[in-house]
Amino acid sequence: MTLFPTKGIVLRSVKYGETSVIVAIFTERFGLQSYIVNGIRTATKKTGPKGNPFQPAALLDLVVYHQDQKNIHRIKEYHWDTIYAHLYSDIFKASVATFMVELLQKCLTQPEENEPLFAFMEDALQQLDKTTPAVVANYPVFFAIHLANFFGFRIADARGEGAFYLDLEEGVFTREQPAHQRFLDPAPAAVISQLLKVMQPSELEAILLTGQQRRQLLQALEAYYALHLPGFGNLRSLPVLQEVLG
To answer: Domain DNA replication/recombination mediator RecO N-terminal: where (predicted)?
Structure first.
Protein backbone atom coordinates (compact mmCIF):
# COMPACT_ATOMS: atom_id res chain seq x y z
CA MET A 1 0.00 0.00 0.00
CA THR A 2 1.10 3.53 -0.74
CA LEU A 3 1.29 6.34 1.80
CA PHE A 4 -0.35 9.69 1.07
CA PRO A 5 -0.52 12.96 3.00
CA THR A 6 -3.96 14.57 3.19
CA LYS A 7 -6.04 16.80 5.37
CA GLY A 8 -9.27 15.42 6.80
CA ILE A 9 -12.46 16.39 8.62
CA VAL A 10 -13.72 13.82 11.12
CA LEU A 11 -17.40 13.02 10.60
CA ARG A 12 -18.06 10.10 12.92
CA SER A 13 -16.21 7.72 15.22
CA VAL A 14 -17.47 4.29 16.27
CA LYS A 15 -15.93 2.04 18.92
CA TYR A 16 -14.34 -1.14 17.57
CA GLY A 17 -13.11 -3.87 19.86
CA GLU A 18 -11.59 -3.01 23.22
CA THR A 19 -9.35 -0.09 22.31
CA SER A 20 -9.91 0.77 18.63
CA VAL A 21 -12.25 2.97 16.61
CA ILE A 22 -13.49 3.10 13.03
CA VAL A 23 -13.56 6.69 11.86
CA ALA A 24 -15.40 8.23 8.91
CA ILE A 25 -13.28 11.08 7.58
CA PHE A 26 -13.93 13.45 4.69
CA THR A 27 -10.43 13.77 3.23
CA GLU A 28 -9.17 16.44 0.90
CA ARG A 29 -7.45 13.91 -1.34
CA PHE A 30 -9.81 10.93 -1.46
CA GLY A 31 -13.20 12.24 -0.34
CA LEU A 32 -15.15 10.19 2.21
CA GLN A 33 -13.11 7.31 3.63
CA SER A 34 -13.20 4.96 6.62
CA TYR A 35 -10.15 4.25 8.78
CA ILE A 36 -9.48 1.85 11.62
CA VAL A 37 -7.31 3.30 14.37
CA ASN A 38 -5.96 0.80 16.88
CA GLY A 39 -5.26 1.53 20.54
CA ILE A 40 -6.81 4.98 20.37
CA ARG A 41 -9.12 4.51 23.37
CA THR A 42 -6.31 3.93 25.88
CA ALA A 43 -5.21 6.98 27.87
CA THR A 44 -1.67 8.04 28.65
CA LYS A 45 -0.45 10.44 31.30
CA LYS A 46 1.27 12.60 28.67
CA THR A 47 -1.49 13.06 26.16
CA GLY A 48 -4.72 12.36 28.02
CA PRO A 49 -7.38 10.49 26.03
CA LYS A 50 -5.86 9.62 22.68
CA GLY A 51 -9.27 9.67 21.04
CA ASN A 52 -9.65 13.44 21.18
CA PRO A 53 -8.38 14.08 17.62
CA PHE A 54 -11.11 11.82 16.25
CA GLN A 55 -14.15 13.66 17.55
CA PRO A 56 -16.60 15.00 14.94
CA ALA A 57 -15.57 18.26 13.22
CA ALA A 58 -11.88 17.79 14.05
CA LEU A 59 -9.58 19.15 11.32
CA LEU A 60 -6.55 16.89 11.01
CA ASP A 61 -3.33 16.49 9.08
CA LEU A 62 -2.98 12.83 8.11
CA VAL A 63 -0.62 10.39 6.48
CA VAL A 64 -2.73 7.45 5.33
CA TYR A 65 -2.37 4.10 3.62
CA HIS A 66 -4.68 3.98 0.61
CA GLN A 67 -5.78 1.40 -1.94
CA ASP A 68 -8.76 2.19 -4.17
CA GLN A 69 -10.30 -1.26 -3.87
CA LYS A 70 -10.32 -1.30 -0.05
CA ASN A 71 -13.25 -0.08 2.05
CA ILE A 72 -11.35 0.49 5.29
CA HIS A 73 -7.86 1.96 5.45
CA ARG A 74 -5.29 2.72 8.12
CA ILE A 75 -3.68 5.93 9.32
CA LYS A 76 0.08 6.06 9.82
CA GLU A 77 0.31 9.58 11.29
CA TYR A 78 -2.19 12.13 12.53
CA HIS A 79 -2.18 15.46 14.32
CA TRP A 80 -4.38 18.51 14.62
CA ASP A 81 -4.39 20.84 11.64
CA THR A 82 -6.59 23.38 13.45
CA ILE A 83 -6.91 23.61 17.22
CA TYR A 84 -10.26 25.23 17.90
CA ALA A 85 -10.49 27.97 20.49
CA HIS A 86 -14.22 27.67 21.22
CA LEU A 87 -15.89 25.05 19.05
CA TYR A 88 -15.89 22.22 21.60
CA SER A 89 -16.30 24.32 24.75
CA ASP A 90 -19.18 26.54 23.57
CA ILE A 91 -22.46 24.59 23.60
CA PHE A 92 -23.97 26.77 20.85
CA LYS A 93 -21.03 26.39 18.48
CA ALA A 94 -20.68 22.69 19.29
CA SER A 95 -24.35 22.10 18.44
CA VAL A 96 -24.01 23.96 15.14
CA ALA A 97 -20.85 22.01 14.27
CA THR A 98 -22.62 18.71 15.00
CA PHE A 99 -25.44 19.74 12.68
CA MET A 100 -22.99 20.75 9.93
CA VAL A 101 -21.06 17.50 10.13
CA GLU A 102 -24.20 15.36 10.07
CA LEU A 103 -25.63 17.26 7.11
CA LEU A 104 -22.38 16.88 5.18
CA GLN A 105 -22.16 13.18 5.97
CA LYS A 106 -25.70 12.56 4.72
CA CYS A 107 -24.80 14.28 1.44
CA LEU A 108 -21.61 12.28 0.87
CA THR A 109 -22.55 8.99 -0.75
CA GLN A 110 -19.44 8.18 -2.82
CA PRO A 111 -15.70 8.27 -1.96
CA GLU A 112 -14.93 10.96 -4.53
CA GLU A 113 -12.33 13.71 -4.28
CA ASN A 114 -13.93 17.14 -4.03
CA GLU A 115 -11.38 19.79 -3.08
CA PRO A 116 -13.76 22.77 -3.45
CA LEU A 117 -16.24 21.12 -1.06
CA PHE A 118 -13.44 20.30 1.38
CA ALA A 119 -12.21 23.91 1.30
CA PHE A 120 -15.76 25.16 1.90
CA MET A 121 -16.29 22.85 4.88
CA GLU A 122 -12.89 23.57 6.37
CA ASP A 123 -13.46 27.31 6.13
CA ALA A 124 -17.01 27.01 7.49
CA LEU A 125 -15.80 25.24 10.64
CA GLN A 126 -12.93 27.66 11.17
CA GLN A 127 -15.24 30.64 10.72
CA LEU A 128 -17.76 29.16 13.15
CA ASP A 129 -15.07 28.74 15.79
CA LYS A 130 -14.16 32.43 15.83
CA THR A 131 -17.47 34.12 15.03
CA THR A 132 -19.82 36.09 17.31
CA PRO A 133 -22.95 34.75 19.08
CA ALA A 134 -25.20 36.82 16.78
CA VAL A 135 -23.68 35.10 13.76
CA VAL A 136 -23.83 31.62 15.34
CA ALA A 137 -27.61 31.84 15.63
CA ASN A 138 -28.03 32.21 11.85
CA TYR A 139 -25.10 30.00 10.88
CA PRO A 140 -26.94 26.66 10.43
CA VAL A 141 -29.41 28.15 7.94
CA PHE A 142 -26.61 29.93 6.06
CA PHE A 143 -24.53 26.74 5.91
CA ALA A 144 -27.40 24.51 4.75
CA ILE A 145 -28.32 26.93 1.96
CA HIS A 146 -24.80 27.12 0.56
CA LEU A 147 -23.84 23.45 1.04
CA ALA A 148 -26.51 22.46 -1.48
CA ASN A 149 -24.49 24.22 -4.19
CA PHE A 150 -21.97 21.35 -4.16
CA PHE A 151 -24.54 18.59 -4.72
CA GLY A 152 -26.42 19.84 -7.76
CA PHE A 153 -29.58 21.27 -6.24
CA ARG A 154 -28.68 24.83 -5.32
CA ILE A 155 -31.52 27.28 -4.77
CA ALA A 156 -31.53 29.76 -7.64
CA ASP A 157 -30.81 33.20 -6.16
CA ALA A 158 -32.71 35.04 -8.91
CA ARG A 159 -35.80 36.27 -7.09
CA GLY A 160 -37.55 38.40 -9.65
CA GLU A 161 -40.11 41.03 -8.94
CA GLY A 162 -43.29 39.43 -7.67
CA ALA A 163 -41.65 36.02 -7.17
CA PHE A 164 -42.81 35.63 -3.58
CA TYR A 165 -42.88 31.85 -3.04
CA LEU A 166 -40.00 29.38 -2.86
CA ASP A 167 -40.78 26.08 -4.58
CA LEU A 168 -38.78 23.48 -2.65
CA GLU A 169 -39.24 20.82 -5.32
CA GLU A 170 -37.69 22.96 -8.04
CA GLY A 171 -35.46 25.18 -5.90
CA VAL A 172 -36.76 28.36 -7.55
CA PHE A 173 -38.78 31.41 -6.54
CA THR A 174 -42.19 31.67 -8.19
CA ARG A 175 -44.90 34.28 -8.62
CA GLU A 176 -47.72 31.83 -8.05
CA GLN A 177 -48.20 29.55 -5.09
CA PRO A 178 -47.11 26.04 -6.20
CA ALA A 179 -49.84 23.44 -6.66
CA HIS A 180 -48.12 21.06 -4.23
CA GLN A 181 -47.45 21.62 -0.50
CA ARG A 182 -43.66 21.73 -0.58
CA PHE A 183 -43.01 25.45 -0.71
CA LEU A 184 -42.23 28.43 1.52
CA ASP A 185 -44.60 31.36 1.95
CA PRO A 186 -43.41 34.87 1.00
CA ALA A 187 -41.99 35.85 4.43
CA PRO A 188 -39.59 32.89 4.94
CA ALA A 189 -38.86 32.80 1.20
CA ALA A 190 -37.67 36.41 1.44
CA VAL A 191 -35.26 35.44 4.23
CA ILE A 192 -33.84 32.62 2.10
CA SER A 193 -33.37 35.10 -0.74
CA GLN A 194 -31.53 37.43 1.61
CA LEU A 195 -29.29 34.65 2.94
CA LEU A 196 -28.42 33.52 -0.59
CA LYS A 197 -26.71 36.85 -1.09
CA VAL A 198 -24.55 36.49 2.04
CA MET A 199 -21.01 35.58 1.09
CA GLN A 200 -19.21 36.16 4.41
CA PRO A 201 -20.47 34.87 7.78
CA SER A 202 -19.95 38.27 9.41
CA GLU A 203 -22.83 39.58 7.28
CA LEU A 204 -25.22 37.29 9.16
CA GLU A 205 -25.10 39.59 12.17
CA ALA A 206 -27.29 42.09 10.32
CA ILE A 207 -30.04 39.53 9.66
CA LEU A 208 -32.39 39.58 12.64
CA LEU A 209 -34.49 36.45 13.03
CA THR A 210 -36.55 34.99 15.86
CA GLY A 211 -36.04 31.46 17.13
CA GLN A 212 -39.32 30.46 15.52
CA GLN A 213 -38.20 31.79 12.14
CA ARG A 214 -34.94 29.84 12.34
CA ARG A 215 -36.79 26.65 13.29
CA GLN A 216 -39.14 27.05 10.34
CA LEU A 217 -36.27 27.65 7.93
CA LEU A 218 -34.23 24.70 9.20
CA GLN A 219 -37.23 22.36 8.93
CA ALA A 220 -37.86 23.60 5.39
CA LEU A 221 -34.22 23.05 4.43
CA GLU A 222 -34.26 19.55 5.92
CA ALA A 223 -37.29 18.84 3.71
CA TYR A 224 -35.49 20.40 0.74
CA TYR A 225 -32.50 18.08 1.14
CA ALA A 226 -34.80 15.08 1.59
CA LEU A 227 -36.55 15.95 -1.68
CA HIS A 228 -33.29 16.01 -3.62
CA LEU A 229 -31.21 13.28 -1.96
CA PRO A 230 -32.73 9.77 -1.99
CA GLY A 231 -32.59 8.11 1.40
CA PHE A 232 -31.73 11.34 3.20
CA GLY A 233 -34.16 10.74 6.09
CA ASN A 234 -34.13 13.04 9.10
CA LEU A 235 -31.32 14.93 10.82
CA ARG A 236 -30.88 13.59 14.34
CA SER A 237 -28.97 16.72 15.37
CA LEU A 238 -31.73 19.12 14.31
CA PRO A 239 -34.03 18.83 17.38
CA VAL A 240 -31.06 19.37 19.69
CA LEU A 241 -29.86 22.33 17.65
CA GLN A 242 -33.30 23.91 17.68
CA GLU A 243 -33.54 23.47 21.44
CA VAL A 244 -30.12 25.00 22.06
CA LEU A 245 -30.61 27.96 19.72
CA GLY A 246 -34.29 28.44 20.56
So the answer is: 1-79
